[in-house]
Specification:
By secondary structure, the chain is mainly alpha-helical. Helix content is about 65%, strand content about 5%. Strand 1 (about 110) and strand 2 (about 115-120) form a beta hairpin. Helix 8 crosses helix 11.
Length: about 250
Amino acid sequence: MEKDFFDEKSKCAAFDKIAEQFFHKNFGSMQKSEFELLLFSIYTDRLAELSKNAESKIPAKCDDYTISKELGITQRVVNNLKIKKALKYPKNDGASWKEELPSIISNASYENGKIKLYIENPVVRMELEHILVNQGNFADYAFNPHVLSLTPPCFLDILPLISESGGEEIKKSIIKGIAENAREEKELLEKIESDSLSKTLKEKGIELALDIIPNVIADSIPAGALLKEPLKRLSVLIGKAVSSKKGKNSSE
């Protein structure tokens, strides 16, 4: 750890958190594992803070490999501590995991009809799995436990729930875009009202979904939202894949 990793302000904040566990008629009551978790929380919060500070002279990386090397523990232990930290010391009403989504989606790929997201943080994987299951979908990791594969309809289905704000407006925009592009407005609107987007699009066919989704993704997120640019990039990837496939089919 660099000498200037903690500035005076962050040192004081860290001491206050530790003091709460020892100097309020509770000295010695905190177990060693809980104390280590508190220190891990303080350390990773500082890492996250530095990673967002463009003026910071300290190179901050939050990946598991860097943390494990810095703390002298295995990446498996880092994973477990991250999950425990999210449960014990949640930030932003437990929605801080969404802050990592723009970076994750920016690095997404589109292969064989699926959006592939590389997710190292186990907390993000856990939250996405919960959303997927609640929407009647499932988490597909194929052969890599860090790569989540989603069909475009499934991705659209969970998009309103993973966005940082305006979920209902995003869903309305998606439904409107689908209805307009499919030219079956009344039928599709009635169908989606009683079912999920994913299931509706699956029934309508993957080809229809692929034609619709690039435009819907690009237009459904309001300007200024953190996911706007990453989703634009993703929509371009899907659009190119669809055009390439159509070109191959027409030439055969």
